[in-house]
Design goal:
Number of strands: 4
Number of helices: 4
Order of helices and strands: HEHHHEEE
Oligomer: single chain
Shape: globular
Strand content: 5-15%
Largest sheet: 4 strands, antiparallel
Distance between the termini: 86 Å
Length: 126
């Protein structure tokens, strides 16, 4: 159809979209993230699971290592809450539920896997 006959026209982009994607900086990882468990519980399951995955990525979980199993565990903290302990996520991140909120925390150190490199003292004498 020609312009002006009920069909909207769109201008051509001024920049190539792939160039725009390259110019966009990656989001900085946050150290802690708190989500409202009630709000997530009431959300559509697909939307809730996407939000949980994005939250895990926001606290530093590597996208290639964050699997459906991890998202299932986060989802269980929201929809099947029974006092379970924390969920261990890739990259050393942890998630737990308390007081109607879901708390996600990045790895406690700068080491990607969350290990401190410090070993506890041995109980045997050498």
């Amino acid at each position: 159809m020609t312009p002006g006959h009920g069909t909207p026209t769109y201008g051509t982009p001024t920049r190539n979209t792939s160039a725009r994607a390259r110019d966009t900086p990656e989001p900085a990882h946050t150290k802690d993230l708190t989500l409202d468990a009630t709000l997530l519980h009431d959300a559509h399951p697909a939307l809730r699971r996407r939000a949980l995955r994005l939250a895990a990525l926001a606290v530093g979980c590597p996208p290639s290592d964050t699997s459906a199993r991890h998202v299932d565990a986060l989802d269980a903290l929201v929809v099947a809450w029974a006092g379970q302990g924390p969920v261990h996520l890739p990259g050393g991140a942890r998630a737990r539920r308390a007081c109607g909120r879901l708390f996600l925390r990045a790895a406690p150190t700068d080491v990607p896997d969350g290990r401190t490199g410090v070993r506890p003292p041995s109980t045997t004498q050498e």
